[in-house]
Request: fold
Amino acid sequence: MSKKALIVWGGWHGHEPEQVAGVFAGLLRDGGVDVEVSDTLDAFLDVEKLKGLDLIVPVWTMSTITKEQCNAVVEAVGGGVGLAGCHGGMCDAFRESVQWQFMTGGNWVSHPGGDGVEYTVDIASSSNPLVDGIPAFSVKSEQYYMHVDPAVEVLATTRFPTVRWFHSSNPPVDMPVVWTKRWGHGRVYYNSLGHHADIFDIPEALELMRRGLFWALEGRQVARDASATADDFRNEKKMF
Reply:
């Protein structure tokens, strides 16, 4: 049975969501995945359909999500469906949804200097297969300053400050660029690169994203083999 992925794109068009969605769809289809692409968040409303997927890929920036839409994704990922995305398309998607931010592992707060900042992406853990053999590389794009869940596994970083601003009165920090985390039985992968689709013309950036998409997707079969469901983590106490 072929693997199934849903890519949902929209929101602020400055991030070229349709083009980025096309890049990701191509990577997945080249790997034999059956990909559905949607331009409406209502694609998240059918929780039973989401539970039947292997991967959800949000490419949606600076918008709002309803409680019902968000809860459906939270439930599906908690049961083992993978979640993977990049840049503002996943971690600046819904600024008012702390539940979304908790699930994804972080949220954008600034990009000092805007687009066109030259910076280095440093690989933090070369022993992890998601980054094994990928060297440090330079990009010229937005450099994302994030508020990040301390539970994530950081796989790549970038050094701040690059641009002088109010934050630069603090000591230098290594800001996560690529990370993974778990949400229930689901695997979550994030890469802060991706302001425009052409960032993936850089081979290292494209390969990082390809590996992340498939790592998140492959966790679904692990959950199925273990007969795992979101019920394993269910709690009726108030969480949000």
